[in-house]
Design goal:
alpha+beta, OB fold (Dihydrolipoamide Acetyltransferase, E2P), 2 domains, 5 strands, 31% strand
């Protein structure tokens, strides 16, 4: 199974990129993350399957192998990360509510929002 490390990931945008072991960039959609995981940090080691997407290789069935090391548990950095995650979630909620008002909301958007909310809830609960 291919593996690589997260180059960057944006909760707000709902995607990011993995640098696979061969050095290629692989698209990572939020929907491909494991159940209950809303975001991943740069440096996180992942295993995944690959499909050819419209813009190149795309990761599917992602599993987290190794999270990047943290400086210390319960540090200010974790609180800053959580605050940023909540701010991104507010932006996603705002976009979704606008979609609802205009009648453009769809099930894919609802599933993405639910996944983000579950991930944020698990982070808040563990804080």
């Amino acid at each position: 199974m291919p593996s690589g490390r997260v180059k960057w990931f944006s909760l707000e945008k709902g995607f990011g990129f993995i640098s696979n072991d061969e050095g290629e960039d692989v698209y990572l959609a939020a929907a491909a993350l494991p159940e209950g995981v809303a975001t991943v940090k740069p440096g996180t080691k992942l295993e995944f399957s690959i499909a050819d997407g419209r813009r190149g290789p795309q990761a599917l069935s992602v599993s987290i192998v190794e999270a990047p090391p943290t400086m210390s548990t319960g540090s200010r950095g974790k609180n800053d990360d959580l605050a940023a995650m909540i701010e991104d979630t507010i932006k996603i909620l705002d976009r979704y509510s606008n979609s609802l008002r205009s009648g453009r909301a769809n099930s894919a958007d609802a599933e993405r929002l639910a996944k983000v909310l579950r991930g944020v809830a698990s982070q808040v609960d563990g804080n």
